[in-house]
Amino acid sequence: MFKGSIVAIVTPFANGAVDQEKLRELVEFQITNGTDAIVPCGTTGESSTLDYDEHMDVVKIVIEQVNKRVPVIAGTGSNSTAEAIELSRKAKEAGADGVLLVTPYYNKPTQEGLVRHYTAIADAVAIPQILYNVPGRTGVNMLPDTVARLAPHKNIVAIKEATGSLQQASEILALCGDQIDVLSGDDFITFPMMACGAKGVISVLANIMPKAVADLTDAFFAGDLETARRLHLNTLKISNAMFIESNPIPVKTALGLMGKCSDEVRLPLCPMSEGNKAKLAAIMKEYQLI
């Protein structure tokens, strides 16, 4: 259902508030450069420090600006099942095409708890839902057997797999077949994951290099594996640079250097260290981004 280059878009701030004008400009930058879908209020969108009203405002602004040109997949996950249901309902009412649901963080649910959490949301809200497994940030790893238990639900259509493990992604693909789509959650393994059967990527890198990420996925699905492989290898250095500090600090710093929006982040995130900023700028110059 959702395929190709899907950007996990940043939430730009100005003096502590959401910069709505810059957000609209970033949406246009993505669509102009071939991005296939947009995810507002994911990890990269700093959802954890947006209050409820801001969260829904960002979702609504993106939906309005996109104006049905590409799908909008709203981040609506929470470590409270009830809150995830409420956010998902509101996103559906606002016109989202799907929702992205991170595994509950801090609670450390069991695998059975994960099944019950996601089943409750899928039963409550009739909208296409993407599971999101990122144990490095949540403290819980949703195992392939658990994904296989959830995959038959009609409202669960995909998983963003961000363990960085080709083995785990491959096990999900082997267990679930065509019951659920797999999307890479890590830019640095998008190409090998697609070679295993993934349908694309929910990308951080696409915030600053949307055309390159879109070209990579487009080439792969057109059968031009040589071009896709070349783009994968060519973007590896800048992909890795997006994680020299906690995401989204590097990508926001990069957007700031490009003049696309402020590099402002919210506490407990803080501005990038000067040493890392110099390293990032040097890499960006290699890619002719600045």
From TrEMBL:
It holds the Pfam family DHDPS. One of its GO terms (cellular component) is cytosol. The keyword Lyase applies. CDD domains: DHDPS. The active site is at Y132, K160. The record marks T43, Y106 as: Part of a proton relay during catalysis. InterPro entries: Aldolase_TIM, DapA, DapA-like, Schiff_base-form_aldolases_AS, Schiff_base-form_aldolases_CS. Pyruvate binds at T44, I202. It catalyses: L-aspartate 4-semialdehyde + pyruvate = (2S,4S)-4-hydroxy-2,3,4,5-tetrahydrodipicolinate + H2O + H(+). It comes from the Bacteria. One of its GO terms (molecular function) is 4-hydroxy-tetrahydrodipicolinate synthase activity. Pathway: Amino-acid biosynthesis; L-lysine biosynthesis via DAP pathway; (S)-tetrahydrodipicolinate from L-aspartate: step 3/4. Gene3D superfamilies: Aldolase class I. One of its GO terms (biological process) is diaminopimelate biosynthetic process. Its EC number is 4.3.3.7. It is found in: Cytoplasm. Belongs to the DapA family. Catalyzes the condensation of (S)-aspartate-beta-semialdehyde [(S)-ASA] and pyruvate to 4-hydroxy-tetrahydrodipicolinate (HTPA). This is 4-hydroxy-tetrahydrodipicolinate synthase. It comes from Geobacter soli. The lineage of its organism: Bacteria, Pseudomonadati, Thermodesulfobacteriota, Desulfuromonadia, Geobacterales.
